[in-house]
Design brief:
The structure holds two protein chains of two kinds. Chain A has eleven helices and four strands, in the order H-H-E-H-E-H-H-E-H-E-H-H-H-H-H. Chain A is of the alpha+beta class. Chain A has two domains: 173 residues, no CATH class; 114 residues, Alpha-Beta Plaits (2-Layer Sandwich), CATH 3.30.70.3040. By secondary structure, chain B is an alpha/beta fold. Chain B is built from seven helices and ten strands. In chain B, the strands form two sheets. Chain B has a six-stranded mixed sheet with strand order 6-7-8-3-9-10, with helices on both faces. The relative contact order of chain B is 0.20. Classes of the chains: A alpha+beta, B alpha/beta. At the A-B interface, helix 1 and helix 8 of A face helix 2 and helix 3 of B.
Protein backbone atom coordinates (compact mmCIF):
# COMPACT_ATOMS: atom_id res chain seq x y z
CA UNK A 1 0.00 0.00 0.00
CA UNK A 2 2.77 2.41 0.99
CA UNK A 3 4.66 1.66 -2.21
CA UNK A 4 1.55 2.52 -4.28
CA UNK A 5 1.09 5.74 -2.32
CA UNK A 6 4.71 6.74 -2.94
CA UNK A 7 4.31 5.94 -6.64
CA UNK A 8 1.16 8.06 -6.90
CA UNK A 9 3.04 11.04 -5.44
CA UNK A 10 6.00 10.46 -7.77
CA UNK A 11 3.72 10.12 -10.82
CA UNK A 12 1.84 13.31 -9.87
CA UNK A 13 5.05 15.34 -9.55
CA UNK A 14 6.34 13.80 -12.78
CA UNK A 15 3.16 14.89 -14.57
CA UNK A 16 3.77 18.50 -13.56
CA UNK A 17 7.43 18.36 -14.56
CA UNK A 18 6.76 16.73 -17.94
CA UNK A 19 3.70 18.70 -18.98
CA UNK A 20 4.75 22.17 -17.94
CA UNK A 21 2.45 23.93 -20.40
CA UNK A 22 -0.67 22.34 -18.96
CA UNK A 23 0.55 22.75 -15.40
CA UNK A 24 1.31 26.43 -16.14
CA UNK A 25 -2.21 26.99 -17.49
CA UNK A 26 -3.73 25.31 -14.43
CA UNK A 27 -1.47 27.37 -12.15
CA UNK A 28 -2.57 30.59 -13.85
CA UNK A 29 -6.27 29.71 -13.63
CA UNK A 30 -5.94 28.61 -10.01
CA UNK A 31 -4.05 31.78 -9.04
CA UNK A 32 -6.78 33.86 -10.71
CA UNK A 33 -9.46 31.99 -8.78
CA UNK A 34 -7.58 32.51 -5.51
CA UNK A 35 -7.16 36.20 -6.41
CA UNK A 36 -10.95 36.42 -6.76
CA UNK A 37 -11.46 34.66 -3.41
CA UNK A 38 -8.96 37.06 -1.83
CA UNK A 39 -10.73 40.04 -3.39
CA UNK A 40 -14.02 38.75 -1.96
CA UNK A 41 -12.41 38.42 1.47
CA UNK A 42 -11.36 42.08 1.34
CA UNK A 43 -14.73 43.08 -0.07
CA UNK A 44 -16.46 41.49 2.92
CA UNK A 45 -14.09 43.43 5.18
CA UNK A 46 -14.89 46.71 3.43
CA UNK A 47 -18.60 45.89 3.51
CA UNK A 48 -18.56 45.15 7.25
CA UNK A 49 -16.58 48.33 7.87
CA UNK A 50 -18.96 50.53 5.85
CA UNK A 51 -22.08 48.99 7.34
CA UNK A 52 -20.65 49.43 10.83
CA UNK A 53 -19.81 53.05 10.08
CA UNK A 54 -23.31 53.70 8.75
CA UNK A 55 -24.95 51.97 11.70
CA UNK A 56 -22.86 54.03 14.11
CA UNK A 57 -23.91 57.19 12.28
CA UNK A 58 -27.55 56.19 12.67
CA UNK A 59 -27.74 56.90 16.41
CA UNK A 60 -30.25 58.83 18.46
CA UNK A 61 -29.68 61.28 21.31
CA UNK A 62 -31.77 62.13 24.30
CA UNK A 63 -31.27 65.54 26.01
CA UNK A 64 -31.83 66.03 29.71
CA UNK A 65 -33.30 69.06 31.39
CA UNK A 66 -31.02 71.56 33.14
CA UNK A 67 -32.21 70.35 36.51
CA UNK A 68 -31.48 66.66 36.00
CA UNK A 69 -28.65 65.43 38.19
CA UNK A 70 -25.77 63.52 36.65
CA UNK A 71 -26.54 60.44 38.74
CA UNK A 72 -30.09 60.33 37.32
CA UNK A 73 -28.69 60.50 33.79
CA UNK A 74 -26.24 57.72 34.55
CA UNK A 75 -29.09 55.67 35.98
CA UNK A 76 -31.00 56.05 32.71
CA UNK A 77 -27.82 55.09 30.86
CA UNK A 78 -27.42 51.94 32.97
CA UNK A 79 -31.04 51.09 32.36
CA UNK A 80 -30.58 51.49 28.61
CA UNK A 81 -27.53 49.25 28.65
CA UNK A 82 -29.65 46.38 29.94
CA UNK A 83 -31.59 46.42 26.64
CA UNK A 84 -30.23 43.61 24.47
CA UNK A 85 -30.61 45.68 21.30
CA UNK A 86 -28.54 48.59 22.65
CA UNK A 87 -24.88 48.29 21.72
CA UNK A 88 -23.51 51.57 23.01
CA UNK A 89 -24.62 54.46 25.24
CA UNK A 90 -22.34 57.46 25.44
CA UNK A 91 -22.86 60.07 28.14
CA UNK A 92 -22.03 63.65 27.09
CA UNK A 93 -22.07 66.07 30.00
CA UNK A 94 -22.89 69.77 29.63
CA UNK A 95 -19.18 70.66 29.72
CA UNK A 96 -18.27 68.00 27.17
CA UNK A 97 -21.09 69.19 24.91
CA UNK A 98 -19.74 72.75 25.13
CA UNK A 99 -16.19 71.61 24.38
CA UNK A 100 -17.39 69.60 21.36
CA UNK A 101 -19.46 72.55 20.12
CA UNK A 102 -16.47 74.89 20.42
CA UNK A 103 -14.26 72.40 18.61
CA UNK A 104 -16.73 72.03 15.74
CA UNK A 105 -17.17 75.78 15.37
CA UNK A 106 -13.61 76.87 16.10
CA UNK A 107 -13.38 78.51 12.67
CA UNK A 108 -16.63 80.40 13.08
CA UNK A 109 -15.90 83.41 15.36
CA UNK A 110 -19.45 84.78 15.09
CA UNK A 111 -20.92 81.69 16.70
CA UNK A 112 -18.25 81.56 19.37
CA UNK A 113 -18.81 85.25 20.20
CA UNK A 114 -22.56 84.78 20.54
CA UNK A 115 -21.91 81.83 22.83
CA UNK A 116 -19.66 83.98 24.97
CA UNK A 117 -22.24 86.75 25.01
CA UNK A 118 -24.72 84.37 26.61
CA UNK A 119 -22.43 84.11 29.61
CA UNK A 120 -23.49 80.57 30.43
CA UNK A 121 -23.43 77.11 28.88
CA UNK A 122 -26.73 76.73 27.01
CA UNK A 123 -26.07 73.14 25.97
CA UNK A 124 -27.71 70.18 27.67
CA UNK A 125 -26.28 66.89 28.88
CA UNK A 126 -27.22 64.01 26.65
CA UNK A 127 -26.97 60.29 26.01
CA UNK A 128 -26.01 59.10 22.49
CA UNK A 129 -27.53 55.69 21.93
CA UNK A 130 -26.51 53.20 19.26
CA UNK A 131 -28.63 50.13 18.61
CA UNK A 132 -27.72 46.86 16.96
CA UNK A 133 -30.44 47.29 14.38
CA UNK A 134 -31.79 50.74 13.41
CA UNK A 135 -35.32 49.32 13.43
CA UNK A 136 -35.00 49.10 17.21
CA UNK A 137 -34.67 52.87 17.76
CA UNK A 138 -38.44 53.27 17.85
CA UNK A 139 -38.71 51.04 20.93
CA UNK A 140 -35.80 52.86 22.63
CA UNK A 141 -37.42 56.24 21.90
CA UNK A 142 -40.72 55.00 23.29
CA UNK A 143 -38.95 53.96 26.48
CA UNK A 144 -37.36 57.39 26.84
CA UNK A 145 -40.66 59.16 26.16
CA UNK A 146 -42.56 57.32 28.90
CA UNK A 147 -44.31 59.32 31.61
CA UNK A 148 -41.98 58.44 34.49
CA UNK A 149 -38.96 59.89 32.65
CA UNK A 150 -40.77 63.03 31.44
CA UNK A 151 -39.44 65.31 34.27
CA UNK A 152 -35.83 64.54 33.26
CA UNK A 153 -36.03 64.43 29.48
CA UNK A 154 -36.01 67.62 27.48
CA UNK A 155 -36.03 66.00 24.08
CA UNK A 156 -35.46 62.75 22.19
CA UNK A 157 -34.31 63.46 18.64
CA UNK A 158 -35.69 60.21 17.21
CA UNK A 159 -38.53 61.89 15.30
CA UNK A 160 -36.16 64.36 13.56
CA UNK A 161 -33.57 61.67 12.82
CA UNK A 162 -36.02 58.98 11.75
CA UNK A 163 -35.82 59.77 8.00
CA UNK A 164 -31.99 59.89 8.10
CA UNK A 165 -31.85 56.67 10.08
CA UNK A 166 -34.13 55.07 7.50
CA UNK A 167 -31.93 56.23 4.64
CA UNK A 168 -28.74 55.05 6.34
CA UNK A 169 -30.35 51.70 7.11
CA UNK A 170 -31.46 51.25 3.51
CA UNK A 171 -27.99 52.27 2.32
CA UNK A 172 -26.33 49.74 4.65
CA UNK A 173 -28.69 46.99 3.51
CA UNK A 174 -28.08 47.99 -0.10
CA UNK A 175 -24.32 47.80 0.34
CA UNK A 176 -24.63 44.41 2.02
CA UNK A 177 -26.90 43.04 -0.69
CA UNK A 178 -24.79 44.51 -3.50
CA UNK A 179 -21.59 43.04 -2.11
CA UNK A 180 -23.29 39.70 -1.52
CA UNK A 181 -24.44 39.60 -5.16
CA UNK A 182 -21.02 40.64 -6.47
CA UNK A 183 -19.41 38.01 -4.22
CA UNK A 184 -21.76 35.31 -5.45
CA UNK A 185 -21.14 36.26 -9.07
CA UNK A 186 -17.36 36.29 -8.64
CA UNK A 187 -17.39 33.03 -6.68
CA UNK A 188 -19.39 31.31 -9.43
CA UNK A 189 -16.99 32.69 -12.09
CA UNK A 190 -13.96 31.49 -10.08
CA UNK A 191 -15.31 27.96 -9.58
CA UNK A 192 -16.41 27.76 -13.22
CA UNK A 193 -12.98 28.96 -14.38
CA UNK A 194 -11.16 26.34 -12.33
CA UNK A 195 -13.44 23.52 -13.34
CA UNK A 196 -13.08 24.42 -16.99
CA UNK A 197 -9.30 24.68 -16.83
CA UNK A 198 -8.93 21.40 -15.00
CA UNK A 199 -11.47 19.79 -17.35
CA UNK A 200 -9.46 20.98 -20.35
CA UNK A 201 -6.17 19.80 -18.91
CA UNK A 202 -7.66 16.41 -18.08
CA UNK A 203 -9.32 16.21 -21.50
CA UNK A 204 -5.74 15.97 -22.83
CA UNK A 205 -5.33 12.94 -20.59
CA UNK A 206 -8.65 11.30 -21.57
CA UNK A 207 -6.97 8.75 -23.83
CA UNK A 208 -4.27 7.99 -21.26
CA UNK A 209 -6.86 7.48 -18.52
CA UNK A 210 -8.74 4.98 -20.70
CA UNK A 211 -5.54 3.13 -21.61
CA UNK A 212 -4.58 2.90 -17.94
CA UNK A 213 -8.00 1.36 -17.18
CA UNK A 214 -7.63 -1.14 -20.01
CA UNK A 215 -4.21 -2.34 -18.92
CA UNK A 216 -5.45 -2.98 -15.40
CA UNK A 217 -4.74 0.08 -13.26
CA UNK A 218 -7.19 0.66 -10.42
CA UNK A 219 -9.26 3.84 -10.35
CA UNK A 220 -7.44 5.37 -7.44
CA UNK A 221 -4.02 4.60 -8.94
CA UNK A 222 -5.13 6.49 -12.06
CA UNK A 223 -6.82 9.30 -10.17
CA UNK A 224 -4.11 9.70 -7.53
CA UNK A 225 -1.49 11.51 -9.64
CA UNK A 226 -4.12 13.99 -10.88
CA UNK A 227 -5.11 14.71 -7.29
CA UNK A 228 -1.45 15.17 -6.31
CA UNK A 229 -1.08 17.56 -9.25
CA UNK A 230 -4.20 19.45 -8.07
CA UNK A 231 -2.85 19.71 -4.52
CA UNK A 232 0.59 20.93 -5.63
CA UNK A 233 -0.82 23.47 -8.09
CA UNK A 234 -3.38 24.65 -5.55
CA UNK A 235 -0.69 25.05 -2.90
CA UNK A 236 1.70 26.89 -5.24
CA UNK A 237 -1.09 29.18 -6.47
CA UNK A 238 -2.05 30.06 -2.88
CA UNK A 239 1.57 30.80 -2.06
CA UNK A 240 2.04 32.98 -5.16
CA UNK A 241 -1.14 34.93 -4.41
CA UNK A 242 -0.18 35.39 -0.76
CA UNK A 243 3.28 36.72 -1.65
CA UNK A 244 1.85 39.02 -4.31
CA UNK A 245 -0.68 40.36 -1.84
CA UNK A 246 1.89 41.73 0.60
CA UNK A 247 3.20 44.53 -1.66
CA UNK A 248 -0.27 45.14 -3.14
CA UNK A 249 -1.86 45.62 0.30
CA UNK A 250 1.05 47.79 1.42
CA UNK A 251 0.80 49.95 -1.70
CA UNK A 252 -2.96 50.50 -1.58
CA UNK A 253 -3.29 50.58 2.22
CA UNK A 254 -2.87 54.30 2.79
CA UNK A 255 -3.90 55.39 -0.70
CA UNK A 256 -7.38 53.84 -0.51
CA UNK A 257 -8.09 54.67 3.13
CA UNK A 258 -9.93 57.92 2.38
CA UNK A 259 -11.90 56.40 -0.46
CA UNK A 260 -12.96 53.45 1.72
CA UNK A 261 -14.12 55.58 4.68
CA UNK A 262 -11.16 54.75 6.88
CA UNK A 263 -10.79 51.10 5.88
CA UNK A 264 -7.03 50.41 5.79
CA UNK A 265 -6.26 47.49 3.48
CA UNK A 266 -2.83 46.66 4.91
CA UNK A 267 -4.05 46.79 8.53
CA UNK A 268 -6.94 44.51 7.59
CA UNK A 269 -4.44 42.19 5.85
CA UNK A 270 -2.10 41.97 8.84
CA UNK A 271 -4.87 41.49 11.37
CA UNK A 272 -6.45 38.69 9.28
CA UNK A 273 -3.24 37.17 7.94
CA UNK A 274 -3.86 33.61 9.16
CA UNK A 275 -7.52 33.48 8.12
CA UNK A 276 -6.53 34.81 4.72
CA UNK A 277 -3.71 32.30 4.28
CA UNK A 278 -6.07 29.51 5.33
CA UNK A 279 -8.70 30.73 2.90
CA UNK A 280 -6.22 30.87 0.02
CA UNK A 281 -4.80 27.42 0.80
CA UNK A 282 -8.31 26.02 1.28
CA UNK A 283 -9.55 27.43 -2.02
CA UNK A 284 -6.40 26.36 -3.89
CA UNK A 285 -5.98 22.87 -2.52
CA UNK A 286 -9.72 22.20 -2.13
CA UNK A 287 -10.60 23.27 -5.66
CA UNK A 288 -7.55 21.46 -7.03
CA UNK A 289 -8.59 18.18 -5.43
CA UNK A 290 -12.33 18.41 -6.04
CA UNK A 291 -12.06 19.50 -9.66
CA UNK A 292 -9.47 16.85 -10.56
CA UNK A 293 -11.50 14.10 -8.89
CA UNK A 294 -14.67 15.16 -10.71
CA UNK A 295 -12.93 15.62 -14.06
CA UNK A 296 -11.03 12.29 -13.97
CA UNK A 297 -14.17 10.40 -12.89
CA UNK A 298 -15.81 11.29 -16.20
CA UNK A 299 -13.22 9.25 -18.07
CA UNK A 300 -13.02 6.30 -15.72
CA UNK A 301 -16.01 4.65 -17.34
CA UNK A 302 -14.14 2.04 -19.42
CA UNK B 1 -10.23 -21.12 -19.92
CA UNK B 2 -12.22 -18.60 -21.99
CA UNK B 3 -15.74 -19.35 -23.19
CA UNK B 4 -17.93 -17.23 -25.40
CA UNK B 5 -21.46 -18.62 -24.99
CA UNK B 6 -24.06 -17.70 -27.56
CA UNK B 7 -22.86 -14.11 -27.78
CA UNK B 8 -25.00 -11.54 -29.59
CA UNK B 9 -24.07 -7.88 -29.66
CA UNK B 10 -26.41 -5.35 -31.22
CA UNK B 11 -25.44 -1.68 -31.45
CA UNK B 12 -28.30 0.79 -31.53
CA UNK B 13 -30.42 1.21 -33.46
CA UNK B 14 -30.21 -2.24 -35.00
CA UNK B 15 -26.69 -3.16 -36.10
CA UNK B 16 -25.75 -6.72 -35.21
CA UNK B 17 -21.98 -6.92 -34.63
CA UNK B 18 -22.15 -10.52 -33.38
CA UNK B 19 -24.88 -13.11 -33.62
CA UNK B 20 -24.95 -16.29 -31.55
CA UNK B 21 -21.18 -16.77 -31.40
CA UNK B 22 -19.94 -19.63 -29.19
CA UNK B 23 -16.46 -21.09 -28.80
CA UNK B 24 -13.93 -21.98 -26.15
CA UNK B 25 -10.22 -21.23 -25.88
CA UNK B 26 -8.15 -23.66 -23.83
CA UNK B 27 -5.20 -22.79 -21.62
CA UNK B 28 -1.98 -22.45 -23.62
CA UNK B 29 -3.73 -22.37 -27.01
CA UNK B 30 -2.84 -20.02 -29.89
CA UNK B 31 -6.04 -18.97 -31.64
CA UNK B 32 -6.36 -16.72 -34.67
CA UNK B 33 -9.63 -14.88 -35.08
CA UNK B 34 -9.98 -13.99 -38.72
CA UNK B 35 -12.52 -12.14 -40.78
CA UNK B 36 -12.99 -9.02 -42.89
CA UNK B 37 -13.11 -5.61 -41.28
CA UNK B 38 -16.41 -5.35 -39.43
CA UNK B 39 -16.74 -9.12 -39.00
CA UNK B 40 -16.86 -8.72 -35.21
CA UNK B 41 -13.29 -9.64 -34.17
CA UNK B 42 -12.60 -6.48 -32.19
CA UNK B 43 -16.07 -6.60 -30.59
CA UNK B 44 -15.29 -10.10 -29.28
CA UNK B 45 -12.04 -8.92 -27.72
CA UNK B 46 -13.71 -5.87 -26.20
CA UNK B 47 -16.33 -8.17 -24.70
CA UNK B 48 -13.58 -10.30 -23.16
CA UNK B 49 -12.05 -7.20 -21.54
CA UNK B 50 -15.52 -6.14 -20.31
CA UNK B 51 -15.18 -2.93 -22.28
CA UNK B 52 -18.53 -3.83 -23.83
CA UNK B 53 -21.55 -5.72 -22.54
CA UNK B 54 -23.17 -8.38 -24.73
CA UNK B 55 -26.80 -7.98 -25.73
CA UNK B 56 -27.19 -11.72 -25.15
CA UNK B 57 -24.94 -14.52 -23.94
CA UNK B 58 -22.04 -14.78 -21.52
CA UNK B 59 -18.27 -14.44 -21.65
CA UNK B 60 -16.59 -16.67 -19.09
CA UNK B 61 -12.97 -16.27 -18.01
CA UNK B 62 -11.89 -19.15 -15.78
CA UNK B 63 -15.59 -19.93 -15.23
CA UNK B 64 -16.36 -16.37 -14.12
CA UNK B 65 -18.79 -14.27 -16.10
CA UNK B 66 -16.69 -11.18 -16.82
CA UNK B 67 -19.76 -8.98 -17.05
CA UNK B 68 -20.79 -9.83 -13.51
CA UNK B 69 -17.47 -8.54 -12.13
CA UNK B 70 -18.01 -5.26 -10.19
CA UNK B 71 -16.61 -2.19 -11.96
CA UNK B 72 -13.99 -1.61 -9.26
CA UNK B 73 -12.70 -5.17 -9.61
CA UNK B 74 -12.25 -5.07 -13.39
CA UNK B 75 -8.53 -4.15 -13.07
CA UNK B 76 -7.92 -7.60 -11.51
CA UNK B 77 -9.43 -9.30 -14.58
CA UNK B 78 -7.51 -7.06 -16.97
CA UNK B 79 -4.20 -7.79 -15.27
CA UNK B 80 -4.71 -11.42 -16.31
CA UNK B 81 -5.16 -10.37 -19.92
CA UNK B 82 -2.35 -8.53 -21.72
CA UNK B 83 -3.67 -6.58 -24.69
CA UNK B 84 -1.92 -5.44 -27.87
CA UNK B 85 -3.94 -2.90 -29.83
CA UNK B 86 -3.65 -2.07 -33.52
CA UNK B 87 -3.23 1.62 -32.67
CA UNK B 88 -0.72 0.68 -29.91
CA UNK B 89 -2.49 2.69 -27.16
CA UNK B 90 0.78 3.67 -25.53
CA UNK B 91 1.00 6.31 -22.80
CA UNK B 92 2.47 9.25 -24.72
CA UNK B 93 3.78 11.06 -21.66
CA UNK B 94 5.81 8.05 -20.48
CA UNK B 95 9.04 6.58 -21.82
CA UNK B 96 9.24 3.07 -23.27
CA UNK B 97 10.53 1.81 -19.93
CA UNK B 98 7.76 3.56 -18.00
CA UNK B 99 5.06 2.29 -20.37
CA UNK B 100 6.12 -1.28 -19.71
CA UNK B 101 6.60 -0.69 -15.98
CA UNK B 102 3.21 0.98 -15.52
CA UNK B 103 1.09 -2.18 -15.06
CA UNK B 104 3.59 -3.65 -12.61
CA UNK B 105 3.66 -0.36 -10.70
CA UNK B 106 -0.14 -0.37 -10.55
CA UNK B 107 0.00 -3.96 -9.24
CA UNK B 108 2.35 -2.90 -6.44
CA UNK B 109 5.33 -4.98 -7.61
CA UNK B 110 8.65 -4.13 -5.87
CA UNK B 111 10.90 -1.62 -7.64
CA UNK B 112 13.85 -4.03 -7.98
CA UNK B 113 11.63 -6.64 -9.62
CA UNK B 114 10.23 -4.03 -12.01
CA UNK B 115 13.73 -2.85 -12.98
CA UNK B 116 14.85 -6.39 -13.69
CA UNK B 117 11.75 -7.65 -15.50
CA UNK B 118 11.29 -4.55 -17.66
CA UNK B 119 14.94 -4.64 -18.70
CA UNK B 120 14.56 -8.33 -19.65
CA UNK B 121 11.42 -7.73 -21.68
CA UNK B 122 12.99 -4.73 -23.42
CA UNK B 123 15.81 -7.04 -24.51
CA UNK B 124 13.37 -9.70 -25.72
CA UNK B 125 11.55 -7.19 -27.95
CA UNK B 126 14.84 -5.58 -29.03
CA UNK B 127 14.16 -2.15 -27.54
CA UNK B 128 16.86 -2.01 -24.87
CA UNK B 129 18.43 0.98 -26.64
CA UNK B 130 15.08 2.78 -26.75
CA UNK B 131 14.21 2.46 -23.07
CA UNK B 132 14.26 6.22 -22.46
CA UNK B 133 12.50 7.24 -25.65
CA UNK B 134 8.90 8.42 -25.67
CA UNK B 135 6.40 6.68 -27.98
CA UNK B 136 6.42 9.63 -30.41
CA UNK B 137 10.14 9.00 -30.92
CA UNK B 138 9.61 5.37 -32.00
CA UNK B 139 8.77 3.86 -35.41
CA UNK B 140 5.53 1.91 -35.97
CA UNK B 141 7.27 -1.44 -35.56
CA UNK B 142 9.00 -0.29 -32.39
CA UNK B 143 5.74 0.98 -30.96
CA UNK B 144 4.08 -2.36 -31.58
CA UNK B 145 6.99 -4.25 -30.02
CA UNK B 146 6.70 -1.92 -27.04
CA UNK B 147 2.96 -2.66 -26.83
CA UNK B 148 3.74 -6.40 -26.83
CA UNK B 149 6.33 -5.91 -24.11
CA UNK B 150 3.76 -4.05 -22.02
CA UNK B 151 1.13 -6.74 -22.59
CA UNK B 152 3.52 -9.49 -21.55
CA UNK B 153 5.77 -8.07 -18.83
CA UNK B 154 3.55 -8.99 -15.89
CA UNK B 155 3.14 -12.56 -17.19
CA UNK B 156 -0.62 -12.49 -17.80
CA UNK B 157 -2.52 -15.71 -18.41
CA UNK B 158 -3.71 -14.54 -21.81
CA UNK B 159 -2.29 -12.18 -24.41
CA UNK B 160 -4.82 -10.72 -26.82
CA UNK B 161 -3.58 -8.95 -29.96
CA UNK B 162 -6.06 -6.99 -32.02
CA UNK B 163 -4.73 -6.48 -35.58
CA UNK B 164 -1.21 -5.96 -34.24
CA UNK B 165 0.30 -5.98 -37.72
CA UNK B 166 -2.33 -3.80 -39.36
CA UNK B 167 -0.03 -0.77 -39.68
CA UNK B 168 3.28 -2.60 -40.21
CA UNK B 169 5.49 -3.57 -43.14
CA UNK B 170 6.23 -7.28 -43.84
CA UNK B 171 9.50 -7.24 -41.88
CA UNK B 172 7.91 -5.80 -38.74
CA UNK B 173 4.88 -8.04 -39.21
CA UNK B 174 7.13 -11.13 -39.06
CA UNK B 175 8.85 -9.74 -35.94
CA UNK B 176 5.57 -9.17 -34.13
CA UNK B 177 4.22 -12.62 -34.99
CA UNK B 178 7.53 -14.17 -33.94
CA UNK B 179 7.17 -12.46 -30.55
CA UNK B 180 3.57 -13.62 -30.12
CA UNK B 181 4.55 -17.19 -30.95
CA UNK B 182 7.39 -16.96 -28.45
CA UNK B 183 5.04 -15.68 -25.76
CA UNK B 184 2.67 -18.56 -26.52
CA UNK B 185 5.52 -21.06 -26.36
CA UNK B 186 6.13 -19.91 -22.77
CA UNK B 187 2.65 -21.17 -21.90
CA UNK B 188 0.60 -18.00 -22.35
CA UNK B 189 -2.74 -18.43 -24.07
CA UNK B 190 -2.69 -16.17 -27.13
CA UNK B 191 -5.56 -14.80 -29.20
CA UNK B 192 -4.66 -13.01 -32.41
CA UNK B 193 -7.34 -11.07 -34.30
CA UNK B 194 -6.20 -10.37 -37.85
CA UNK B 195 -7.18 -10.18 -41.48
CA UNK B 196 -3.62 -10.89 -42.67
CA UNK B 197 -3.88 -14.05 -44.75
CA UNK B 198 -0.13 -14.77 -44.92
CA UNK B 199 0.30 -14.51 -41.16
CA UNK B 200 -2.55 -16.93 -40.45
CA UNK B 201 -1.47 -19.44 -43.07
CA UNK B 202 2.15 -19.51 -41.86
CA UNK B 203 1.13 -20.05 -38.24
CA UNK B 204 -0.64 -23.36 -38.86
CA UNK B 205 -2.61 -22.99 -35.60
CA UNK B 206 -6.29 -22.96 -34.71
CA UNK B 207 -8.32 -20.49 -36.80
CA UNK B 208 -11.80 -19.20 -35.99
CA UNK B 209 -13.41 -17.42 -38.93
CA UNK B 210 -16.08 -14.77 -38.45
CA UNK B 211 -18.24 -13.38 -41.21
CA UNK B 212 -20.80 -10.63 -40.67
CA UNK B 213 -20.90 -11.32 -36.95
CA UNK B 214 -21.34 -15.09 -37.25
CA UNK B 215 -18.85 -17.84 -36.55
CA UNK B 216 -18.56 -19.66 -39.87
CA UNK B 217 -15.53 -21.92 -39.30
CA UNK B 218 -13.43 -23.22 -36.40
CA UNK B 219 -10.48 -25.42 -37.46
CA UNK B 220 -7.67 -26.89 -35.38
CA UNK B 221 -4.97 -26.25 -38.02
CA UNK B 222 -6.82 -23.77 -40.12
CA UNK B 223 -6.16 -21.58 -43.11
CA UNK B 224 -7.41 -18.13 -43.94
CA UNK B 225 -10.48 -18.69 -46.06
CA UNK B 226 -13.09 -16.01 -46.59
Amino acid sequence: MLILFQRIIRLGLEKIRRDRGTAGAALFAMTSAIAMATFLFFLQGVSAHLVEALRNAADISTYFTEETAEEDILQVRDQLLTFPEVTRVEYVSKDQALAQFQEVHKNDPAILESLEALGENPLLASLNITAQNPAEYRRIAEYLEQESLAPFIEDVDYREREPIIGRLTRLASGIQLGILLVSLGLAIIAVFMIFNTVRLTILNSKEEIEIMRLVGASNWFIQGPFVVEGVVIGFLSALIMFLLLIPIAAFFGGRMEGFLSGFHIFTFFTSNIFSLLLLQLGVGVGLGVISSVIAVRRYLNV
Amino acid sequence: MIRFQNITKIYPPNTAALEGVSFEVKKGEFVSLVGKSGAGKTTLLRLLLAEEVPTEGEVLFEDQNVHMIPFDDLPYLRRKIGVVFQDYKLLRSKTAFENIAFVMEAMGVEDEVIQREVADVLTIVGLEERANNFPDQLSGGEKQRLAIARAFVHRPEVVVADEPTGNLDPYNTREIIRLLVKINSLGTTTILATHNKDVVNQLGKRVITLDQGKLVRDEERGKFMI
